[in-house]
Amino acid sequence: VEIVSHLVEHWERGDWGGGRELFDDTCEVVFSTSGFPDAGAYGVGRDALDAWIAFTDSFEAFGTEVDQMIEAGDRVVILARIWGRGRVSGADVKAKVGAVLTLRDRKVVRYELTDRTQALEAAGLSE
């Protein structure tokens, strides 16, 4: 949880590239189809960061806030909220999301952004 907390500090400031040293070079980043337009698996680094930035850039304003972090063995589940205002539509968007980060040797080896239910289930938990 301590390692993931450092990442979250970067993300809550909108510093999406911050904390790169906390990811293993072989880390797989998975953006779920449940709410992400460029869903798929990416290697950690520029491709994953570019996909995330393309998503956040579609909003005039965008933010995240973590509600809870749950340690589950070698995984940390993040339950969070994202919000934004569509750049083109002007529509306000609010969503509850989840993420599962798998760690090995104090490095993130897998990061999956999904919905809360799927995040909890992946860690063998439920709401």
Describe this structure in words.
23% of the residues lie in helices and 47% in strands. The relative contact order is 0.21. The two termini are 19 Å apart. The chain has 127 residues and is α+β, with helices and mostly antiparallel strands. It contains three helices and six strands, in the order αββαββββα. The protein has helices at 2-12, 46-56, 116-122, and strands at 23-31, 40-43, 59-72, 75-86, 92-104, 107-114. It has a six-stranded mixed sheet, with helices on both faces. The model has no long low-confidence stretch (mean pLDDT 90).
Summarize the structure.
The chain has 127 residues and is α+β, with helices and mostly antiparallel strands. The protein has helices spanning 2-12, 46-56, 116-122, and strands at 23-31, 40-43, 59-72, 75-86, 92-104, 107-114.
- Overall 3D shape: globular
User: In sequence order, what are the helices and strands, one letter per element?
Assistant: HEEHEEEEH
Distance between the termini: 19 Å
The percentage of residues in β strands lies in: over 45%
Sheet with most strands: 6 strands, mixed
Would you count the extended β strands for me? 6
What percentage of residues falls in helices of 4 or more residues?
10-25%
Poorly predicted spans: none
Q: Give the overall average pLDDT.
A: 90
Q: Strand order, main sheet: write it out.
A: 2-1-6-5-4-3
Task: Assign the structural class, choosing from mainly alpha, mainly beta, alpha/beta, alpha+beta, or little secondary structure.
Answer: alpha+beta
Indicate the radius of gyration in whole angstroms: 14 Å
Please give the count of helices: 3
